[in-house]
Structures are given as structure tokens and as C-alpha cells.
Description:
Blueprint: H1 3-6, H2 17-27, H3 32-39, H4 43-57, H5 62-71
Helix pairs in contact: 2-4, 2-5, 3-4
Amino acid sequence: MSLLKANEGSPHEKLSNREYQTLLLIAKGKTISKIGGGLSLSVPAISTYRARILEKMGMSTNAELTYYAVHNRLI
């Protein structure tokens, strides 16, 4: 393992505040439209946040995000 990898931290630490907030809501089972309504953002904006979260965390489904959040005691 390289020194750089050792200092990167947890995957969720790469997220912006809004992405982190969106991650938690997805992990709690909220739909994209419910998240958008609750945060006063459009559905396409939330979909973009979701795509960025998945990319940054190296995941591909909401189920993986939910497992990660529960496993790491984020929710």
C-alpha cells in the first residue's frame, strides 16, 4: 500500500457537504424526488449528486451506499 493511499481516509470523506447529506438520505431509503423536495433542489440536481457519490466512492447501486452507511455507522 502506498503512503498516498494510507492517507486518503474513508471514501465518504471525499464527498462535499451536499453529497454527504444526499448519501445519508439515500441510505435512509428516501427517493430522489423526496430528497430533492426536502432540500429544495431539482430531481436532476439530486441525480447528479448521486452519480458523483457513486463515482467518488467506487460503487454502483443505492444498496451498496446503504450498506456502506450502515456498516460505517453514518446512519
